[in-house]
Design a protein that fits this description.
Its EC number is 2.4.1.1. InterPro entries: Glycg_phsphrylas, Glyco_trans_35, Pyridoxal_P_attach_site. Keywords: Allosteric enzyme, Carbohydrate metabolism, Glycosyltransferase, Pyridoxal phosphate, Transferase. Its cofactor is pyridoxal 5'-phosphate. GO terms for molecular function: glycogen phosphorylase activity; pyridoxal phosphate binding. This protein is an alpha/beta fold. The chain has two domains: about 80-95 and about 130-485 and about 820-825, Rossmann fold (3-Layer(aba) Sandwich), CATH 3.40.50.2000; about 510-810, Rossmann fold (3-Layer(aba) Sandwich). The protein is about 50% helix and about 15% strand. The protein has 34 helices and 24 strands. Strands 1, 4, 7, 8, 11, 12, 13, 14, 17 and 18 form a ten-stranded mixed β-sheet that branches. A six-stranded parallel β-sheet has the order 21-20-19-22-23-24, sandwiched between helices. Strands 2-3 form a two-stranded antiparallel sheet. Helix 2 (about 30-40) packs across helix 5 and helix 23 (about 575-590) runs parallel beside helix 24 (about 615-630). The longest helix is centred in the N-terminal third of the chain and has 29 residues, at about 50-80. The radius of gyration is 28 Å and the shape is globular. It starts with 10 loop residues before the first helix and ends in a 6-residue tail after the last helix. The structure holds pyridoxal-5'-phosphate. Pyridoxal-5'-phosphate binds near residues 141 and 677. Pyridoxal-5'-phosphate binds next to helix 7, helix 25 and helix 26.
């Protein structure tokens, strides 16, 4: 091989290359030129081709325009010794990227003009993009909003996740039932936004055993992980542009590939078939996203996924460090911080120990100092069914060396507990990372290994300290803090609500796009007649856009003057879609008995996916659809009431839904919703919340005041107090409206030809063990909904409430959230 032929460009040549790259223009003509070039010359299509091909040509055109900034950002982060944060998350629910990237590059208008000249429609091209659905719901969408805000704040943060071949399933509704279809979002090629970086491929090990021996040369005790199977982790980088600031951050997604020359020994033994089969087993790791939100995925493949993410990402960071600083890790923790998005990546605590001790030969004490100063953990739920516990036996089989390290971490931790509470063995058992049933408790591992532990809304963080993690709080109160969630206004206002964007820009300038607290300025226009009219016009247009979508997806026509009452989120009993349905049935019963004086027409929209194995959630979807069928086809009802279930709720659907909503339903049992972020998207876009005192609703209420919020329901301590003494039958007995609702349900009115179908649902609500206490909140919910109906009749009052809700939503920007993470936890310096 002619290795000596490798040429190194001179400074002159590098300058020449830089000149050539600069020619990437942002004018209408430049964009038009490149788009046509990609469409015709690279893809071999023409202007009459499929919108998806046009989307591909457009995304390459735009990606080119990010590339120089992207390289420059990467180089700037790696030039000097710069502290960086790594956001480790099993989910990034990105959605579409084209319109967002155009917004952040500041070339929306130019691109629109370029397409107009070619007789193409930018809107149709944007519509053709498939959602990158690499997440379940709030937790994954939060990670995507965080990435956007970090790039806008120019924080050196790198996202690490998995490149699932199949993302969140596509939901179809057939005969009222949810049907799941696989989401092969990559088509048969690549995601046009990503760049494969094979040169950063890492190797992850599974199985085998660990052997302890004395190094024959140094005499030191050494550990070797032997006979493991190897899986390659190949990174695909996705650009994350900041808003008009030339920063482009990186989201690195790992894809599993069988190691080259996989199981060669098996080949040689003639086991051709087994060898090839094991290749597909390796590649299975990143095949599919687990579709469960807020519930445990207790499967071996899931643990493999978690370790794969953690090991590949940590190796990536550590080897980049070693390339520069060799094996000097003395100040590693000063320059690197890992944020764990829930317990899913909490193996990072043990894996970084393993790398530092086994590979980098650090002592236990030195390694632990580094690990415990560089890990930070975010808790996302108090629901016991979501707390991850993995059997020791599974760990032993899959990650024997990692298990040894966890045992050692636990032994040293329990010693500490014993020092603090001498003789309290029961406490040691309760706090042990290994539970009495021989499971590894991932939350405890994360807590023991982290210098910061945060909840995601004020109430939730408080409940963590009082309940779930109380004993850890007693031990380490200084580690606990709150970081209230947010959403990015770039996607959730500027991009998804162009009418509102134009109105805001005209009235208060465009500074709100990077400083959402500026929104408070619109409050001074709250009595300005023309502003108020414009506000209503924008909402009306957005309602029309939503009504069009509803009609296309469900065939049901909405009257845009009616109240648009919306609940979209994952289907879960704690979120209480059932309470919403009970109210719809109550309204239906009122119409049927002629109790319609002073009526407010209402269109109720419910949407969301149920985990495929969550039987009750799927029944709830069926109930919603059956009630809708009856309500929408009863001539007595007419325009007074409509109910639809919107299929396949996802990010791109929410971009139409949140601007078009009047009323935002946030009705979880108090103490169960950690934060919620859907609530914030609605508020920003001028919807008013009907909600319980739960999650971030508490802070929304505090911002807008009781007169601009429909509050109802038991408070968290009341829920706790009622537990054990909850008798739903009493609530039915005392409430004739609830009786009417139940007699319709129990008579089979909504399942005439499907007898017994809803028995489980009915029984669960009537059970004194119902953890969600749906019937306890029925009366107060119906009363609050009555207030809603009256308030909506006074268009002027409603409009004021709508303006105030949006005006006071500034604190719910992820720009604020990220600033707080940085000030209190990461302590990074922004890089301009
Ligand atoms: C915002 C969002 C969520 C989170 O909604 P919550 O109401 O907070 O549960 C879930 N899914 C999608 C697609 C979202 O955009």
């Amino acid at each position: 091989m002619a290795q000596n032929k490798k040429s190194v460009p001179s400074t002159k040549q590098e300058k020449h290359i830089a000149e050539l790259l600069k020619k990437m223009g942002m004018s209408v003509t430049d964009i038009e030129q490149d788009f046509v070039n990609y469409l015709y010359n690279m893809l071999g299509r023409d202007i009459h081709s499929d919108p998806y091909d046009q989307f591909k040509a457009m995304s390459y055109t735009i990606r080119d325009r990010l590339m120089t900034y992207w390289k420059e950002t990467w180089n700037a982060y790696n030039k000097d010794k710069t502290k960086k944060a790594y956001y480790l998350s099993m989910e990034f629910l990105i959605g579409r990227s084209l319109s967002n990237n155009l917004l952040n590059l500041g070339i929306e208008t130019e691109t629109e003009k370029a397409m107009y000249r070619l007789g193409a429609s930018l809107e149709a091209i944007e519509e053709a993009e498939r959602d990158a659905g690499l997440g379940n719901g709030g937790l994954g969408r939060l990670a995507a909003c965080f990435m956007d805000s970090c790039a806008t704040l120019q924080l050196p943060v790198i996202g690490y996740g998995l490149r699932y071949e199949y993302g969140m399933f596509k939901q179809l509704i057939q005969n009222g039932f949810q049907i799941e279809e696989p989401d092969h979002w990559l088509g048969f090629g690549y995601y046009p936004w990503e760049i494969q970086r094979s040169e950063y491929t890492r190797t992850v090990y599974f199985g085998g055993r660990s052997r302890h021996y004395k190094d024959p040369h140094t005499g030191e005790l050494t550990v070797h992980w032997e006979d493991a199977e190897e899986v390659l982790a190949v990174p695909f980088d996705v650009p994350i542009p900041g808003f008009e600031n030339k920063t482009v951050n990186t989201l690195r997604l790992w894809s599993a590939e069988a190691a080259e020359g996989f199981n060669l020994s098996e080949f040689n033994q003639g086991s051709y078939f087994e060898a090839v089969a094991s290749k597909s087993e390796a590649e299975n790791i990143t095949m599919v996203l687990y579709p469960n939100d807020s519930s445990e995925n207790g499967k071996e493949l899931r643990l493999r996924q978690q370790y794969f993410l953690v090991s590949a990402s940590l190796q990536d960071v550590v080897s980049q460090w070693s390339e520069k600083y060799g094996n000097d890790f003395s100040d590693f923790a000063e320059y690197n911080v890992f944020q764990l998005n829930d317990t899913h990546p909490s193996l990072a605590v043990a894996e970084l120990m393993r790398i530092l001790i086994d590979d980098k030969k650090l002592s236990w004490e030195a390694a632990w100092t580094i690990v415990s100063q560089s890990m930070a953990y975010t808790n996302h739920t108090l629901l016991p069914e979501a707390l991850e516990r993995w059997p020791v036996s599974l760990f032993n089989k899959l990650l024997p060396r990692v298990l040894e390290i966890i045992y050692e971490i636990n032994a040293r931790f329990l010693k500490l507990v014993a020092m603090k509470w001498p003789g309290d063995q029961a406490r040691q058992a309760r706090m042990s990372i290994i539970d009495p049933d021989d499971n590894v408790c991932m939350a405890y591992l994360a807590i023991v290994g982290s210098f910061s532990i945060n909840g995601v809304a004020a109430l939730h963080s408080q409940l963590l300290k009082e309940g779930l993690f109380h004993e850890f709080y007693e031990l380490w109160p200084e580690r606990f803090n709150n970081k209230t969630n947010g959403v990015t206004q770039r996607r959730w206002m500027a991009s998804s609500n162009p009418g509102l964007k134009a109105l805001l820009n005209e009235k208060i300038g465009r500074h709100w796009i990077t400083d959402l607290t500026q929104l408070s300025k619109i409050e001074s226009f709250v009595n300005d007649k023309s502003f108020r009219q414009e506000w209503m016009r924008v909402k009306r247009e957005n309602k029309q856009r939503l009504a069009d979508m509803v009609e296309k997806d469900t065939g049901v026509k909405f009257d845009v003057t009616a109240l648009f009452d919306v609940q979209v989120k994952r289907i879960h009993e704690y979120k209480r879609q059932l309470l919403n349905v009970l109210h719809v049935i109550h309204l239906y019963a009122r119409i049927k008995r002629g109790d319609t004086d002073n009526w407010t027409n209402r269109c109720v929209i419910i949407g969301g996916k149920a985990a495929p194995g969550y039987v009750m959630a799927k029944k709830i979807i069926k109930l919603i659809n059956n009630v809708a069928e009856v309500v929408n086809n009863d001539p007595d009802v007419g325009d007074k009431l409509k109910l639809v279930f919107i299929p396949n709720y996802r990010v791109s659907a929410m971009e139409i839904i949140s601007p078009g909503a009047d009323l935002s339903e946030q009705i979880s049992t108090a103490g169960k919703e950690a934060s919620g972020t859907g609530n914030m998207k609605f508020m920003m876009n001028g919807a008013i919340t009907i909600g319980t005192l739960d999650g971030a609703n508490v802070e929304i209420l505090e911002a807008v005041g009781e007169e601009n919020f429909f509050l109802f329901g038991l408070k968290t301590p009341e829920v706790a107090k009622l537990r054990g003494h909850y008798y739903p039958e009493n609530f039915i007995e005392e409430d004739s409206d609830l009786q009417a609702v139940f007699s319709l349900l129990e008579s089979g009115h909504f399942n005439q030809f499907e007898p017994g179908l809803f028995d489980d649902i009915i029984n669960s609500m009537k059970s004194s063990k119902d953890p969600w206490m749906t019937l306890a909140d029925f009366r107060s919910y119906v009363n609050a909904q009555h207030e809603v109906a009256l308030a909506f009749q006074n268009h002027s009052r409603w409009n004021t409430m709508s303006i105030i809700n949006s005006a006071r939503s500034g604190i719910f920007s992820t720009d604020r959230t990220m600033q707080e993470y940085n000030d209190d936890i990461w302590k990074l310096t922004p890089i301009k």
